[in-house]
Amino acid sequence: MKTSKYSSLWKLILCFILVNIVFLSIFHSKISFLTDTCVQRKDSFETVTISTGNHNVQPYNNCPSYSPQITVKDLFQSYFQFFNNSTWLAQPSIYSISFNELHSLLYGSQTKNIYKSWPNYHKKEFDGSYPHTSMTTELFLIIAAKINISIHLVVEVGSFIGKSSSNIGRAIKIHPQWSKQVVLLCIDTWLGGVEHWLQYQHMVALEYGRPTIFEQFLANIIHANLTNIVLPLSTTSLIGAQLLIRHKLFPQVIYLDSAHLQGETLVEIEMFWALLQPGGILIGDDWRWRSVRCDVLRFARNIDVVPTIIRNTWFIQKHFIDPIPISTYVNPSCSPSRFKDLQEKLREEREINYNSLSWTNDVTETNQTTSKYDDFSLWFVNNSFFSTTLNRIIALFHLDDQCHLQIDGELQMKKRKFCKLSMWI
């Protein structure tokens, strides 16, 4: 009788253990599915790469299907056509700009410093109560360390009262190579998003029906002592992107924390990706938002890249274009030794694939002419970044006054004989 009793008890215990194992297995799989692979331990900065799957238009990661016929480049043709405009290509590109130069460019040379001239009518003081930002000073430093080009311009799209702006600004300030050469441009309407009007209306701080978020942003930046690093541009993200492209300002880092609606996020990603200097990084917040995640994955799949996820932050690095043969023609006084000197100088700047630069001693007689210029014409690449690189190469060789150079998608010179330098970018 006793044996039978113990036998029944053991059976009950075994059944209980089996039921728990099954339950925990199901529960764990559900949790893994719902939280995605991007969720990390709170004390960890480990990164996770997300596979975008095969290239079709079926739903993925709980995202709705979409029409591949509707693209951002079709909707905003005038914006993307700038990159093929010969007049625009002829203008110099800006990759490095000081705080004062950017202030004058955006606000006019006669405008007083926006911080020093701010009257603070609303008596704003520092307010650090807004809890939401994934971009910490430490995280920015970790991501920016992956960039192998010089950083001069950082753009933040969506700043609200300046919590992430202050964190990025502090990262710039404490970095020994950035403190005197990097500017953070913050683009925002400072009118608030839907979530701010619905959930944080007290922080919108309406006065006569209008938010005073911009005033709070200024107060917070002044409190953080970042008035020589952080510069606000009060406009929409789309207008901000257009201003950058018209001025040919190309950032090395762009941080997106503005659009959160599906489709809207994709528009911002596409437009600011086009502005990002090759080698730079596009960063975004709120990976855990379904709408943001879906648009990031759609964009990543379209350009065949894989985003990296750190907690609630995603980022994609813009790699240099695959090698394209380009021929530049410099005056015949160049020599192998001068070429080696050029190669070393360019290697220091780390902007192109230097190992594939090759020397040739050929001197080419050019017989081609154009209708506008009686000279040699060569199509090299429709990209302002490479125009700037090409300019530096020419400048290092000190072409004499008899050469005529016009960067508008063509390299045009008034000389008949040139020493040829083959370059792969």
UniProtKB/TrEMBL annotation:
Residue ranges of the TM segments: 12-31
Record's keyword annotation contains Zinc: no
State the UniProt keywords alphabetically: Membrane, Transmembrane, Transmembrane helix
Name the UniProt record assigns to this protein: Class I SAM-dependent methyltransferase
Source organism, top-level taxon: Eukaryota
Show the Gene3D superfamilies listed in the entry: Vaccinia Virus protein VP39
> Where does this protein have coiled-coil stretches?
none
Task: Output the Pfam families linked to this UniProt entry.
Answer: Methyltransf_24 (PF13578)
